[in-house]
Amino acid sequence: MPILELENLSKTYGGTTALKGLTLQVEPGSVYGLLGPNGSGKTTTLGIALGVLRASSGTVRWFGQEPTAANRRRIGALLETPNFFPYLSARQNLLLAADVKQADTRSVDQALDAVGLGTRQHDAFRGFSLGMKQRLALASTLLGSPEVLVLDEPTNGLDPQGIAEVRSLVQRLAAEGKTIILASHLLDEIEKVCTHVAVLQRGELRAAGPVSNILATADRVLLRPAPD
Ligand code: ATP
């Protein structure tokens, strides 16, 4: 059974059409990339899938069911950078996030270890590198041990070292069995970390399938911004 099924999703914001009839399926164990230039509809797709945006039409199914509070708890999401407190430690920040999510302390310890911050957990957030800050953000998505992670442009704004850290963390989490859905406008990122990809252009699906098939054959012009 697919982890996520989007069927015929459309979305308009006022006069702007952001998505046009998007259908895709994410299978368990995949690292599924949504690839497209800025404005192609990636964030809109993830927002609708997570229930933070309402589709104009179409359906979303998680784990073969209509979205419910119970299956929402099986999904960890990073759509925007969380507001961590600069003078609190990594651990204190995660304990606060865990409180909001009703996750337990054990889950905090597991998340810190999973992102490689166990030994830095008592250090103040403000002293962290960009990559460490983003790894802490990823740790917050792991609270409650979700089966699926949904990440919107997780390496945006990072320096090269941070990008490398976050990409290898995504690969490690996938190897540990998480299904990961990740939006990116970077072809090399998708090639490096994803098993499957959907290529979006102006809110339309242009191609979808295993990365090796799609990126080998896709016209790379697709990945440029569409002409007006
Ligand atoms: P980015 O990487 O820049 O976030 P994206 O691929 O995630 O791009 P979306 O953010 O989903 O794309 O935007 C798709 C289209 O919808 C764009 O034309 C965008 O301008 C428009 N859009 C997104 N959010 C809104 C909004 N709240 N109101 C009006 N238009 C919006």
UniProtKB/TrEMBL annotation:
Q: Which UniProt keywords apply?
A: ATP-binding, Nucleotide-binding, Transport
Molecular function, one GO term: ATP binding
- Keyword ATP-binding recorded: yes
> What region holds the ABC transporter domain?
4-227
Q: Which domain of life is it from?
A: Bacteria
Task: Reply yes or no: does the keyword Glycoprotein apply.
Answer: no
Q: Which family does it belong to?
A: Belongs to the ABC transporter superfamily.
**Protein name from the UniProt record:** ABC transporter ATP-binding protein
Q: Which residues of the full protein are shown?
A: 1 to 228 of 298
